[in-house]
Amino acid sequence: MKICDIFARKKTLSFEIFPPKREEDTFTLIEDTITRLDSYRPDFISVTYGALGNTLTNTAKIAKHIKENTSAEPLAHLTCVASTTGIIDNVCTELKEARVENLLTLRGDMPKDTSVPVLSDFRHASDLARYISWKFNGDFCMAGACYPEKHPEADNMSRDIEYMKMKQDAGMQFFNSQLFFDNEVFYHFLLKARKAGVTVPIIPGIMPVTNYSQLDRMIQVTGCNVPLKLRNYFDRYKDDKAAIEEIGLIFTSYQILDLIANDVDGIHIYSMNKSGFIARLMDNISYVADKFFE
C-alpha cells in the first residue's frame, strides 16, 4: 500500500532504522529490531543507508524483508549523491518487483572527500523525485525531508520552505521532518509551510536521546536547538548513564504526547536501531498513542 493512501484515513506511526554497514551482518543485526518495532503496529518503517550508497543493496533487501514479514509498509531511501539515472532505474525496478511502493527521495549527505564526483544526474531531491515520477509513472509514493530549523545550508527559513514547496510540486506526497527538541519550533515551521502552500502531510521526526555524546553530535550534524532545560538535565547527570537514559525517556515521552495533543499528522521516530529503548518509550505513551493512531 502507498503511504499517501494511509494518510487519507488515519494518523501514522513510523520508525526509522538503518542497515548494518557490513553485508554479512544485514539480517543477524536488524531482523530482531524489525520484529520488535512491528509489534507496535507502525504504518511504515523507513530504511536509510550510508553516504555514497555503500549499503544501498542492504536497503533494498531490508525493505523487501519488511514488506514480506511485517504489517508495516517499507519506505526506502534514495539519494542524489552518487546516483545516476541507471542506478536509480535499477534500484527502483528491484523495489517495484519486491512490491515496495514508497520512497524517500533526498539529496543525501555530501562526503568529506570533495574530489569524488557525487552529484551528476541529480543535483536536488526535487530533480530525483521528478525523474522517478516520469520514469515510473506513479508506481511509487514519494516522500521528502523538511527542516523545522531550516537546512544548515539554506540562507533562511523562507527560502528553505520555498524549496519544500518545489519538492511538493515535483511529486513528493508527504514530508518527514528533521529531528528537533523544541515543539514550538515545529509548530511555527508548520504554520509557515502551510501559508506558503505546502498542503501535504508533514510528519514531525523525533530522536530519542539516550547518552550525553549523542546530544552534542546531533547539534553538530543538524544545527538543531537544544532547550536550556534539557541541556541542564544532561549537564547535571552526564556521568550517570542510567539517569541520562531516564531523562531521555521522560523528555521524549512528553514531546510526543504534546505533539499528539496538537493533532499533528503523525509521529516519526528515529529509532537508531535501539528497540529496547523504543519498547520503554512506547509503553510509556501507550494509552494516548493507541487512541491517536487507531
Helix-and-strand structural type: alpha/beta
**Total beta strand runs:** 8
Mean pLDDT: 90
| Series of secondary-structure elements, N-terminal to C-terminal | HEHEHEHEHEHEHEHHHEHH
List the uncertain runs: none
User: What does the overall shape look like?
Assistant: globular
Rg over alpha carbons: 18 Å
The N- to C-terminal Cα distance equals 17 Å
- Oligomer state equals single chain
Total helices: the number is: 12
What are the salient characteristics of this protein?
single chain, alpha/beta, 8 strands, 48% helix, globular
Task: Describe this structure as you would to a colleague.
The chain is of the alpha/beta class. It is 48% helix and 16% strand. An 8-stranded parallel barrel has the order 1-2-3-4-5-6-7-8, surrounded by 5 helices. α6 (157-169) links the parallel β5 and β6 (172-179). The radius of gyration is 18 Å and the shape is globular.
Short description:
This protein has 294 residues and is an alpha/beta fold. The protein has helices spanning 3-7, 26-38, 56-69, 85-97, 125-136, 157-169, 183-195, 212-222, 228-236, 241-261, 275-284, 286-293; strands spanning 12-17, 44-47, 73-79, 102-106, 141-146, 172-179, 202-206, 266-270. It has an eight-stranded parallel β-barrel, surrounded by five helices.
Secondary structure layout:
Layout: H1 3-7, E1 12-17, H2 26-38, E2 44-47, H3 56-69, E3 73-79, H4 85-97, E4 102-106, H5 125-136, E5 141-146, H6 157-169, E6 172-179, H7 183-195, E7 202-206, H8 212-222, H9 228-236, H10 241-261, E8 266-270, H11 275-284, H12 286-293
Parallel strand pairs: 1-2, 1-8, 2-3, 3-4, 4-5, 5-6, 6-7, 7-8
